Amino acid sequence: xxxxxxxxxxxxxxxxxxxxxxxxxxxxxxxxxxxxxxxxxxxxxxxxxxxxxxxxxxxxxxxxxxxxxxxxxxxxxxxxxxxxxxxxxxxxxxxxxxxxxxxxxxxxxxxxxxxxxxxxxxxxxxxxxxxxxxxxxxxxxxxxxxxxxxxxxxxxxxxxxxxxxxxxxxxxxxxxxxxxxxxxxxxxxxxxxxxxxxxxxxxxxxxxxxxxxxxxxxxxxxxxxxxxxxxxxxxxxxxxxxxxxxxxxxxxxxxxxxxxxxxxxxxxxxxxxxxxxxxxxxxxxxxxxxxxxxxxxxxxxxxxxxxxxxxxxxxxxxxxxxxxxxxxxxxxxxxxxxxxxxxxxxxx
Length: 348
What we know:
Blueprint: H1 8-17, H2 23-32, E1 40-43, E2 46-51, E3 64-65, E4 72-76, E5 79-80, E6 85-88, E7 95-100, E8 109-118, E9 129-135, E10 152-159, E11 174-181, E12 198-201, E13 211-218, E14 221-227, E15 235-240, E16 243-244, E17 250-256, E18 263-276, H3 280-285, E19 293-294, H4 311-347
Parallel strand pairs: 3-4
Antiparallel strand pairs: 1-2, 2-18, 4-7, 5-6, 6-18, 7-17, 8-13, 8-18, 9-10, 9-17, 10-11, 11-12, 13-14, 14-15, 16-19
């Protein structure tokens, strides 16, 4: 594989200024930096990757539908338009979702999300926002931005409406993240504050330029950045080390409206694989995990639910319970009769 050497300082500056919509230009530049097939090494210790098309989505949205052959499935009120996929329209009590059918087994990855939130509602009269998911279960409607509560995996929320009236510490819209092992509920009344890993204000409604979000997961390190100012620059939002996410989960995005509403649109989702060199010590530390967790953050342990009983098992349990009850009654009657006989003998 050909290797193109680029000064690390230049790469850092260029990467920071790179807009999410320039992903295709970045890939083309990397291809021009060397010959042959495969990714190009642009910085010591890291090789930037191919676009993973089976986990990516862009216009004209081919492969989106409800059939088993589609790479992406729609749910609820979500619908495909020519320029975007609308998760929910600017109407009350709607919810919709878009889910990838292919589980992701990448070790290190970066997801770039091009989205737009807009509507007729004025200040604090719009809602509720959207979420980006990397979870064990897919296509499960529920109250958490249109997805199930007590999910297993990672949720990143673009929350546009403050439910907690007394809070004065944050300005909405607000981006936050949550890792769940299936034991935690998202607290709507407090805007998810008890379980969030971090967050930042993100003024994303009714903008006349493109808005982007990037979720990067490298070496157990979760980083979330945004490009929402029209300057084509990534701005830091959340950075959390020690995040342990299993492989084989699904990417998706969902939205919900209640009494308040907005248009929640997804324009593109682009997933890139990041190939990172690891030392032998890091290889030991970064072994496969089977349940999401965060270092130094105590998540309640999940107790596995008992498997449901089959009809035959239930019948046998009831049958033997009845037999045991009859047997116990018979033994009781025999003992009672013996006791009565012994009582009569004492009186004679």
